[in-house]
Structure prediction request, 335 residues.
Amino acid sequence: MPIPVPMNDSAPFGSAPEGTRRTSRFSTAQAPLQQRLDLWEEYNEQALFGLRCSTLSERSLLATQTNLALPRIRLTHINGNDHVIERAPENIRRNPVDAVMLCLLLEGKAFFYHDAGCETLAAGEAVVYDANRPFMYGFSTDMRQVIVEVPRTVLREQSVREDYFRPRVLRITGSPAATHASSTANAVLGAFRDPVPDADELERSVLEMFFIITGEPGAAPSLAYLAAARDYIGAHLGQPALSLAQIARAVGISERHLTRVFAEAGTSPARYVLENRLTRAQELLADPAHAATPIAAIASSLGFVSAAHFSRAFRLEYGCTPRDARVSTTAHQPE
Prediction:
């Protein structure tokens, strides 16, 4: 029988010393079918909050959850098959959790039933709810989501409106909030993959994005805008016309504000775009899988307007031509 085993030393949520992180992971994959739902409920009682779980699948619940507790907030990644969770009044009485959850649905289809009605949502949309209000959250397909849990004490520091705590589905697709949701998911998943060099900075950035996505942006959320802009640039390097205006519009700020955000990080949007294109080009030139790809095709795939422009920029950055870089890499590869 699998049991929840913390990956790092554990402590009650909210009590971690400043700058620390605690991670735990649990999966029902190796559990007997008849025990999977009970084990999932037991783990969530410890790691997230008390709930009921059910499924109509013949596989029962096949799901994995990873949690990262930062000094003030908790980050969660869940993937699984179709199932329903319910936060019933008895769960709340037994295990109250004075926090608000932001759930970013990355894959699947879902419904959210609460005291004001029932709403459906698809991948790319989000749910925000008060963990101390009853709700039912169900997935009709295989699913994957990221959750950001923020205690009410942290929210009160921002003097949020009272209706901020009401449960609701966020229809953010195509809006700047969607860019920030994608960036939040990238930050959370990246924190699970690699050690976090600065837990305080990660927490501040995710908190800033949390407030932007839920409609309560705090004062000057520079880390959130920088992270979202960087992620947006990384996802659109192949667009030749990737402009300052396009990036600013995607993250929801003015061009002047975006320029100031990058200046605070010691660079500019244009310079950041160029550096990332050249870095990616260098990686492709060194990749044996792209040994036969014409250099002009690599340049085009990364948004350079011409092979000549690419060659000049590459030489200025690395002191050699793209062709020389490819030859040098090939010469140093083991036979």
Summary: The chain is about 40% helix and 20% strand.
